[in-house]
Design brief:
The protein is mainly beta. The chain has one domain (9-46, 64-342). The protein has four helices and 18 strands. The strands form two sheets. The protein has a 16-stranded antiparallel β-sheet that branches. Strands 2-3 form a two-stranded antiparallel sheet.
Length: 350
């Protein structure tokens, strides 16, 4: 079927699928759909330069330069949100973290996907989206950033992608491929009311109900600093390499109390903490619920608690994640990791 020409995003798909050769697109299809409110609005970046030559009072001609990196960030915001079965968004997150393991939960149909922050990321994707009467393809893109926040009663966010180029003449992804695109799930959202935040000293006992802290808002940011290098003989960027990475956690405590204002001592003493943020949904299979959980084995406060005199006094806390010397009690890694429980039996990255 031909690509729609109607000017409404309701009629268009966008998709993300793991690829294997940088610069070579793969065909998207069923299960590769991104359930997002915005495709990030990727655009071709190629600078036109007029010829500047002696004897030309006004330029007579010009030329297009190299393809600049295509940076864009599909958003699962608005009425959308993070899914317990995240599909292609989950693949992007898994690639960003760099390491994945999947394990069946008992004899049930539920599986746990564990994504652990690796030294580097190696996986990349083909991205395809539609515009009226046209299909746009980014043959190769890395996911270098994940941002999460609360909004509209859900966990919302975006995935930052850096691609090599944008083209509209692909023979790999045509209307046939985009018509076949479907997401993994459509309305199994990770919701505000499903969540709990727990924190105690990194050296303390395992996190439990006694470590719950009241949080009205949070933001998480996972980012790898990637480059954009052109190689002689090529017109678009090579597969990006990493210089560093950063992981930040920000919490808003709705009411400042004498207990949480005392977090000032954590900052002054540089006392390392551990934290988990756990969302638990409905039943996936007997004995196991859908869940989406974030684990931080070692966090440091990077600023004093933000406690301003207001009609209702709040408290803001900002942390950076570090690597623990050994996995703290109750945790399975020295680095940040995510656990997702759903019905998917296979890895989000291969």
């Amino acid at each position: 079927m031909a690509t729609s020409t109607y000017p409404s995003k309701r009629f268009y798909n966008c998709a993300l699928k793991q690829a294997s050769t940088w610069g070579t697109a793969v065909a998207v299809g069923a299960g590769d759909g991104l359930l997002v409110s915005s495709d990030g609005n990727p655009s071709l970046k190629q600078t036109y330069s007029s010829t500047d030559a002696i004897g030309q009072v006004m330029a007579l001609d010009g030329d297009l330069g190299l393809y600049e990196p295509i940076d864009f960030a599909p958003e699962f915001g608005g009425k959308c949100g993070l899914q317990y079965a995240p599909g292609a968004v989950g693949s992007a997150i898994a690639a960003l973290f760099g390491s994945e393991a999947v394990a069946q939960q008992g004899a049930s149909a539920a599986y746990k996907h564990t994504l652990t922050w690796a030294d580097t990321m190696t996986d990349f994707f083909t991205f395809a989206t539609e515009r009226p009467g046209d299909i746009w393809e980014v043959p190769s893109a890395v996911c270098y950033k994940l941002s999460l926040k609360l909004g509209d009663g859900k966990v919302q966010g975006s995935i930052g992608l850096r691609g090599n180029l944008l083209k509209n003449d692909s023979t790999t992804n045509t209307a046939t491929q985009l018509d076949a695109v479907t997401p993994e799930a459509t309305a199994n959202f990770v919701k505000f009311q499903h969540g709990v935040v727990r924190m105690n000293a990194q050296s303390g006992d395992a996190l439990d109900s006694g470590d719950i802290i009241e949080v009205s808002d949070f933001s998480l940011e996972f980012e790898r600093a990637v480059d954009a290098q052109h190689i002689l003989g090529g017109s678009y960027i090579a597969q990006p390499k990493e210089a560093s990475f950063s992981i930040k956690v920000k919490l808003t405590l709705p009411y400042a109390t004498s207990t949480n204002v005392a977090y000032l001592d954590l900052f002054k003493d540089m006392t390392a903490q551990k934290m988990d943020i756990v969302f638990t949904g409905g039943v996936a299979d007997t004995g196991y619920n859908y869940s989406f959980s974030f684990f931080f084995p070692r966090l440091k406060l990077v600023a004093p608690p933000d406690v301003k005199l207001e009609d209702i006094i709040k408290n803001g806390l900002e942390f950076v994640a570090e690597e623990a010397a050994s996995a703290p009690t109750g945790m399975n890694s020295t680095r940040p990791y995510i656990e997702i429980v759903n019905l998917r039996t296979t890895n989000y990255i291969s």
